[in-house]
């Protein structure tokens, strides 16, 4: 590896002169500066930015532990976080937890080893008993994103319960009573909150919650497709379906198509999460859309405050969704 001393020898100057040229800490005459710059180019020397940052007590990096980067929603969320951090002069390091405890621990340990200035985490199931206490123990500034946990930390996510309730109530309003739900991965706060919204809508209209109409979609496409296919193959199938995230929405649509059924003629459909390309679907999907930009930017704003030394009480922020009424519900 080329060192600053190698550059200094080639340029015929001291290592301190090379440092002044690189860092602009002292004026260097034009002839000397040119020799140093040429030596840098010839040797391919690069500064050890990490070592310099660590010496200054900052790395200007932020770690993000998040699941299912192939999910369009999480991809958009990563983009929103990265853009906000980049505007503030930070570099984002991303690790995919795959919603598994072992993977999440590897990601978090790796980020902590890299001395990131702060961390943003979309916690996997059980994180409040595993990785989150470790982050807090190291006093690394932390913000939870998308999902919550029972810890003392800033948390930013979408409004889940009221949004899921509104989707279900919309189907009830247009006459459906056998409404199935495709719920997400167990142990995740957003799964619980969205299912609570579905259950509250039924209870509010005097409709019993039928366990046979609950599909465990596990927050992924394949599980949702299998579960919905089995459900919709029954003689007494539901007349409407609510999907609780966009990966499961894709699985649900695949299952319905495989069975030769059509939306909304054979089954009405609404979903939590919207797609940027929703208008390309036919029928167009009635959906609760998350404000991903606001969620990402708010998480970054809170984290940068903590990095800057803010010691006020943690904030729990819920960002409202937007109801997009299209024609998959069958009432337009």
TrEMBL record:
Domain HTH cro/C1-type: from-to ranges: 3-46
* Keywords (A to Z) from UniProt: DNA-binding, Repressor, Transcription, Transcription regulation
Any coiled-coil ranges, and where?
none
Q: Does the keyword tRNA processing apply?
A: no
* Domain named HTH lacI-type: residues: 2-56
Which Gene3D superfamilies has this protein been placed in?
A: 3.40.50.2300, lambda repressor-like DNA-binding domains
The record's annotation in Pfam families points to: LacI, Peripla_BP_3
Q: Which GO terms describe its molecular function?
A: DNA-binding transcription factor activity; transcription cis-regulatory region binding
Q: Does the keyword Transcription regulation apply?
A: yes
Protein name (record): LacI family transcriptional regulator
- The species this protein belongs to is Mycolicibacterium goodii (Mycobacterium goodii)
